[in-house]
Design goal:
Strand content: 25-35%
CATH superfamily of the largest domain: Spore Coat Polysaccharide Biosynthesis Protein SpsA, Chain A
CATH class of the largest domain: Alpha Beta
Shape: elongated
CATH architecture of the largest domain: Alpha-Beta Complex
Radius of gyration: 36 Å
Distance between the termini: 91 Å
Structural class: alpha+beta
Strand order of the largest sheet: 3-2-1-4-7-5-8
Number of domains: 4
Number of strands: 34
Amino acid sequence: MLTNGNRWLTVRDSGILTVRAPVEGEHAWRENLVIVPTYNEAINLKQLVPAILRQGPFDVLVVDDNSPDGTGAVAEKLAQRFPGRVEVLHRSGKLGLGTAYLTGFRYALAQGYQRVFTMDADFSHDPSYLPALRQALEDTDVALGSRYVHGGGTLRWPLWRRILSQSGSVYARLILGLHVRDLTGGFKGFRRKVLEELLPELDNMHSSGYAFQIETTYLCFRHGFRIVEVPIIFEDRLVGKSKMSRRIIVEALGVVLALRLSQTPLRKRLAMGLCLAVGMAAIGLAIVFGAINIAPGLSARLARAPAEQAVVLPHGQTSHSIDRRLAPALAAKKRPLRRERVAFLQLQGEDLTPNVPLHFTGSGFLPGEELAVTILGQQGQPEAQLTSVIADQAGRFSVATEAIPAGLSPGTHLLLVQGQSSQRLARASFQLHDIPPTVTLDTYTVKNRQDFGFAGNGFLPNEVVEVRLGSPTGQRLAAMSANAKGNVAGRVMVPRLAAGNYTLFFVGRQGRAPTSVGLNVQDFHPWVVLDNYAPSPHQRLGFTGEDFAPGEEVLVYLNRRGGEPIARLQADTFGRFQAPASWGVGALSGKQEWIFVGQGSGAMATATITIGP
């Protein structure tokens, strides 16, 4: 585990990370690195790191600033759980977001990573967007996760944060002359060559906090690197406390002006400074004033009316929270304020697949009241209404179990539980992963009219699973129901098929992802043994045959196939038959050929005898 010798890093110490060369043989796993700075993110980090690793070939570097809540210890356990894919760098204290990223950049270059990504640790940046950022880097140098381009937006952000963020981006664009719409976001991807060229300048940057994001993008622009904005939905954190402060806002205002003036010839600086002073001071003061004075009031009002929070989408579209039954709480805002009891919801497992039910428990509601349970999607839209639960006399409910509704798409979902009398609201998020089911056969080589067994898991509980030949919509061979755990088992009879390789598809009628298995069908090669190959006249002959189709009728012809058979035999379930002393030779003499033809398989076997005088 790389902790740089298991000692704490200061800002100066981080420079030594560039000394280490990439480890030989690691290049296949050194393509993509996601840098996650942390400070008091223990709860979020437990879920975030596995979510990042599920997105594909992404490694994770956690840069922790000696978090009091034990984030560093959580990161160490994750590194032990995912060796080679998760590393941790511990720093001696809260040294700033910018220096955390610089430490991560140096590590990435030292380890030979070709693409480097940055993201927040609080799930405001959805890891599912990482493949899109990685794909964008195929054709560009810098990919920015953007809230303010078509397709982007914010989820559950208070009004004052939206005003502050968009005003800050507009302010920075006007001062710096950039065309990037989202300059304050931290969800980014860089090609290696970008960091190699910028790193000497990054050591002398003006900012160490959130203004680092603006300054980094500006440097990329100045160096002529290609920049593309990838739309993302930014979701306000569900756990923990935001790091935004007045000091950070003031620092960002000053850094933007400093960047602009630092790139202007000395002769023009005074004139520009004088022209910009009045306008920019007005804009800056407006932003600061809004954050310092307006924000608390707006936050308080929004906290008293959680149902009015909305998803902000491009072009001014909004999607309000679905529960209109919170209207009485809005009407009550004119009444004298009183302390409200907070409702609490806990999920037992937050990484789910469609065949794994939701298990949740809650408290903080009124005794005996009915609780409505709703699932919301990533855009805040209602997706499913689950069975209501009843709080006990302590205002709690024990573990409730609900199957994942059919048709729920993969991604982040929000579970809401609302008291129908108290209007108290509790919520928790979970990740749904669309993992294809798996099926195994008891044999992968069969013959016509034989059957084979199969067993599978990962289907939806109690759904009907069909076995189809050649494609998900091909010939149906069988159908059976999965059990309550999504497991299925059965046997399938192979129809009459030409010899060759075939694909079987196991398709759940409610599920979205069928699974397939290869099957080899072989021809029958029957053979027959006579009990005497040189009989005398008037003796009786017996036959024994194998490798016919199970249960098929076998017709016996003499010397030529066709006409009326001289005998009819029945193969057993193993494709065999025995007919001792079943046919009299009679007056025949010389060579005679016996022809055995399976009526189900069409397979044929022959045997020749010579009848003596």
